[in-house]
Design a protein that fits this description.
By secondary structure, this protein is α+β, with helices and mostly antiparallel strands. It has a single domain, classed as Aspartate Aminotransferase, domain 1, CATH 3.90.1150. The protein contains 4 helices and 6 strands. It has a 6-stranded antiparallel beta sheet. The radius of gyration is 13 Å and the shape is globular. It starts with a helix and ends with a helix.
Length: about 110
């Protein structure tokens, strides 16, 4: 399952832990959320913090949308619908980016 693969990637990051909010897995490190896994009709999604400056670049790609509620703070959502197979190397790099963009400074250089 996709959530198992996401867990394997993110829980290897320093101080990463999984919590649950609104019935979905949220991943934090140093008390800060860095990604959220979401169930979608016929698929799943991940939210990433890319930052306000890079958000436009991501939104040019139709796979990404601005994340509801927190998008104005530089968060985007990547949805995998139906048979879309994730490029796990890309997903790993996006998760690392989000981790670096949102965890406390003492953790940023550890991955």
């Amino acid at each position: 399952m996709s959530i198992d693969r996401v867990r394997k990637i993110v829980l290897a990051f320093p101080e990463a832990e999984e919590t649950e909010s609104f019935g979905e897995p949220w991943f934090r490190a140093g008390g800060k959320v860095f990604t959220v896994y979401g169930a979608e009709p016929n698929g799943w999604s991940l939210c990433f913090k890319c930052g306000k400056m890079q958000m436009g670049i991501f939104l040019e790609d139709p796979r990404f949308t601005q994340t509801p509620y927190v998008g104005r703070h530089g968060w985007v959502t990547l949805k995998f619908i139906g048979r879309d197979m994730p490029n796990w190397e890309e997903v790993t790099e996006l998760l690392k980016m989000s981790y670096r963009n949102n965890v406390p400074a003492r953790l940023k250089g550890k991955i």
